[in-house]
Amino acid sequence: MATFEPCDVRNQEQVRRLISVAEDRFGGLDYLVNNASAPVHFEAPLEHWQHTIETDLLGAMYGIRAAIDAFRRRGGGAVVNMTSISALPHGRTHAAPCYDAAKAGLLRLTTMLAWLAGSEKIRVNCLAPGWIATPQVQEYWQPLTPEERELRGAPSRLLTLDEVAGAVFRLASDESLAGRVMIWWSEDSPKLIPWGDRGYSESADVY
What we know:
The protein has about 210 residues and is α/β, with parallel strands linked by helices. It has helices at about 10-25, 50-75, 95-110, 115-120, 135-140, 145-150, 160-175, and strands at about 30-35, 75-80, 120-130, 180-185, 190. Helix 1 (about 10-25) packs parallel to helix 2 (about 50-75) and helix 2 packs parallel to helix 3 (about 95-110).
C-alpha cells in the first residue's frame, strides 16, 4: 500500500525528492496536480505575502520543473494547476492581494507553457474554481442567509469535491487541451477560456 510522502513545496529539494519517490514507487510519473495553498489571512491582507507566494506560486513552479524531467523519462505527461476565480475578476470586497496575485501568476504560467505539448508531449492546464465545499469553507458559508451570501459575494451553492476532481481529471486526461484555463463559478457550469482571449472585451475607451 502506498504511503504519504511529506513535502514542503516551498523547498525545491523536497519537491524534487517527492517526484523521485513517486517515480520509484509507481514506476514513473504521468500526472502532477499542483494544489498546495497557504492559508488566506483576510484580517491582515498585506502580511504573510512571502509564505503565500512561495507556496502557491513558487511551489507550483518547483513541481513543474521537477515533473518535466520525470515526464521526459516517461515520454510525456500532464500538469493541472489549481488556481482560483479570484485570479480573474476585479472588485473583490474581501481583500487577499497576495493570494490573488499568486493565483494570477499561476494562471499565466499555465498559458505560457502551452508550447511544451508540441515539443515535449507535456500538457499544462489549470482549473480556476469558485467556492469549494471543503470543511473550512462550509463552516463559513452554511450559517449565512441568502441575503448575507449575496452581500458578502458568496455563491448560493458550493462546488462538490467530486465535481472538482472530475474537472481535474478532464484537464489531465484530455489530450486536446494544453495551456488552457477552465473556469467554474460555483453557480455555473465549467467553461474553457477561449485561446488567445484578451480578457478585457468590455473595456471602455478613455480618449
